[in-house]
Design brief:
Helices cover 37% and strands 14% of the residues. It is α/β, with parallel strands linked by helices and 297 residues long. The protein is globular and about 50 Å long.
Length: 297
């Protein structure tokens, strides 16, 4: 079980274009901190650690909280929407840019993130899961060990997020083709989707499949059953359920819809696994990437 959260720049920091491009994110960094802390606390009641992929601005403004959570077992990684960066230089999602441009975007974000948190990020996810065939090579060259960059089946051209036909399970990335496994030491961990539950318009406007985006009103129980049934058929070496959320949901409020969804997801995973003779365990992105890399050597 791999719980992730994309920690977005506060809307108070954003230019109008960034708000048009992506409406996710907290109103301010107090709301961000409350959401991050509540997500971690809820997960902890089930014994699960969390992976927080933080935009550079969140790394700066919520640094103390993130470092405390890291010391308590969380994994911290980098999240980037280019148009949400404070200098407001970029207008598009990461997959719209060349390798050289991506390198400049991500390295600049890394510098801010490292200055705030005291160590360089080694795990990555782009906003909207935006990427192109150069992205994995760029990240490897910048020193990243892995990430959760793909959402199999997604077709969202306006955000350069095209993952139809992508590899379903954790794998070594290919430096020339983002859809297939390769031989690099960069490990990509796809988000879990329900291939038997297609959608013509998901929460981000995409074609694809229902998935475990916690705040959305998908049938999360059906998604979980679909994913676990596929595990029994495919027998992947690393059967991991990967969820996602944003830091704009009040997870400390026990009656908030997203908190209720998270409780249902975690409870359903436990109940379904028990009925199927499985035992769910929590893991962070860094730990999983290390296991996959070691296993594939």
């Amino acid at each position: 079980m791999l719980l992730t959260m994309d920690c977005e720049t506060a809307r108070s920091d954003l230019a109008p274009n960034a708000i048009r491009m992506s409406g996710s994110g907290p109103a301010d960094y107090e709301e961000s901190a409350r959401s991050i802390f509540g997500y971690a606390e809820t997960a902890a009641t089930y014994g699960y650690p969390v992976t927080f992929l933080a935009h550079p601005e969140v790394a700066v403004e919520n640094a103390d909280l993130l470092l405390d959570l890291r010391d308590r077992g969380a994994c911290l990684g980098l999240h980037v929407h280019p148009y949400k960066l404070r200098h407001r230089k970029y207008q598009h999602d990461l997959g719209a840019y060349s390798a050289g441009e991506q390198s400049g975007i991500v390295s600049g974000a890394m510098h801010v993130w490292e200055s705030a948190l005291g160590h360089p990020p080694r795990y990555f996810r782009a906003g909207y899961f935006s990427a192109n065939d150069q992205t994995f090579g760029v990240l490897s060259d910048l020193g990243f060990a892995g990430g959760s960059l793909s959402i199999p089946g997604r077709v969202l051209p306006g955000h350069h997020s095209l993952w139809a036909g992508a590899e379903n399970y954790s794998h070594r990335a290919h430096h020339q083709c983002r859809l297939t496994a390769g031989e690099s030491d960069f490990i990509n961990v796809p988000v879990s989707v329900a291939f038997e539950r297609p959608v013509s318009r998901g929460h981000a406007g995409e074609q694809g499949h229902e998935w475990l985006y916690v705040p959305h009103r998908y049938d999360h129980a059906a998604v979980i059953r679909d994913v676990l049934d596929r595990f029994t058929l495919d027998k992947p070496r690393f059967p991991v359920i990967v969820t996602d959320s944003h830091n704009d949901q009040d997870y400390l409020n026990t009656q908030h819809p997203a908190r209720l969804n998270l409780e249902r997801i975690l409870g359903t995973i436990l109940d379904t696994c028990t009925r199927m003779g499985m035992r769910p365990e929590g893991i962070t992105l860094d730990a999983l990437c290390r296991q996959v890399l070691e296993d594939l050597r």
